[in-house]
Every structure is written in C-alpha cells, then in structure tokens.
Design goal:
Blueprint lengths: L1 E2 H7 L9 E3 L6 E3 L3 E2 L42 H11 L11 H8 L1 H35 L1 H9 L4 H30 L15 H27 L3 H6 L2
Helix pairs in contact: 4-7, 6-7
C-alpha cells in the first residue's frame, strides 16, 4: 500500500491500484493494492514524505517493528499485559522503547519548544528594556520642560491638559517606533517560518496581541512621568533654573 504523496509523485492524476513498484532495488516487485492518507511519521512538524507500507512477513530484510495500542484509560497500565502477550507469542522477541503517544509527540517537538522559550525570554527582556528606555526618555523630557509646564499651569492649563500633552508627545514616538518595527517584522517574517508550527508568520492575531502589549506597556511607561508633570507646582517650577 502507498500513501497519497507516493501516488501523486509516481502516478499523478491516476489511480495507483494495480501498479507495480520494485523496492528495494534489486528486489521483488510489489503490486499496489491500497491507497492511504498521508501520515506524519517523523514528528508533527516534519514533512509528509512519500511512504510505502509492506507486510512485515514479506520484507526481504529484517526490520524493527512498532506496535501501537489504543487505550480507553491510562495507556501506561497496558505495558505489563502487552509484554505478557508478546512473551506468549515469541519469548525471544524483545520489547523495548515503550512510550505513550503523548510523550512521543512531546519528544518530537522539544527542539521547537526550546526555541520558543528562548525567543520568548529574549522578547520579554527586549520589552522590559524598551519600557525602561521609554520611561527614561519621557522623564528626561519632562524634567527639561519643567519651566514650560509651570508657565502653562500658571496661565490656566489644567492638570488633565498637561497629562494629555505629555502622553501625546510620548505616544507619538511609540507609534512611530511601532510602525517601523512592524514593517521590519513583516520583511523578515519569512526567515522565521521554519521555526513555526501551526502558526503563520503573518498571523494577524499574533501581530495584534503583540502591538496591544507593547502599546499598553508604553502607555504605562509614559503615564508615570506624565502624572508627575501634571502635579508640578507652578511656583516651584518658575523659581527653578
């Protein structure tokens, strides 16, 4: 029996039933008697390779055999009964590498998960550094505009207006930086496609979540110096050099 990839590769557009293949070469001729759906034999993130299924007793060379048992309860409880059944069938046949399907899937994805954790840690560090940088820049800008803010308050500007003005100037820089970062991300997203599984490199939900998180943190970093600016004493500000 062959899978859909094998049939599409060797007999595109026609049924593979009744066709003959020779595997391995030199070796016996096999007649295709069935067509199966593609399966991921090399991990969930692996490619679907063309596959041929042959009866184990007819193989011209020895191979190891994997047996899959479907369980309605905890599959680990079936290890003992399966071993006893195998011993009754053939006492000399070894049984090894017993795993659950969940552990086998986790094992196939460990590299992807390690990359994800590493990139996630770098992203959190970058986010913290960005928030610290925004806070530092806005705080410095507010300290440089202390006299200006004092004059505005003395002329009748309300704390709310001062708060809004400082937030607008800070968020304008954040918006510009986010736009540049988004453009660069879209440009290099394809380079990260090999590290992704089940997620598109241009997923709008991911981009929206990241932009929302960055905007929220930037708003918080801007809000602290903006509130401090809104609470400036005009007399003390006008007296300062």
């Amino acid at each position: 029996m062959v899978d859909e990839n094998f049939a599409r590769l060797h007999w595109p557009g026609i049924s593979p039933i009744g066709k003959r293949i020779r595997y391995p070469r030199p070796g016996p001729w096999w007649t295709v008697v069935g067509l199966l759906r593609n399966e991921k034999h090399y991990g969930l993130d692996g490619e679907d390779r063309p596959t041929v299924y042959t009866p184990e007793p007819q193989l011209p060379f020895p191979m190891s055999l994997d047996v899959v048992i479907r369980a309605q309860s905890n599959p680990e409880l079936l290890t003992g009964p399966a071993r006893r059944i195998l011993e009754r069938l053939d006492p000399d046949l070894p049984m090894y590498r017993v795993r659950t399907m969940v552990s086998e899937i986790d094992r196939s994805l460990w590299a992807r998960r390690a990359y994800s954790w590493l990139i996630g840690i770098f992203a959190v560090v970058a986010l913290v550094l960005a928030a610290a940088g925004i806070y530092g820049v806005i705080s410095y800008a507010v300290s440089q505009r202390t006299r200006e803010i004092g004059v505005r308050i003395a002329l009748g500007a309300s704390p709310r207006e001062i708060l809004a003005a400082v937030l607008r100037s800070g968020m304008a820089l954040v918006t510009m930086g986010a736009a540049i970062g988004l453009a660069l991300t879209l440009a290099v997203a394809r380079l990260l496609s090999d590290l992704l599984f089940g997620v598109s490199p241009h997923d709008p939900l991911v981009y929206g979540a990241v932009l929302s998180a960055v905007t929220g943190i930037a708003l918080l970093a801007n809000g602290i110096p903006a509130r401090r600016a809104a609470a400036v004493d005009p007399l003390r500000a006008l007296r300062s050099e």
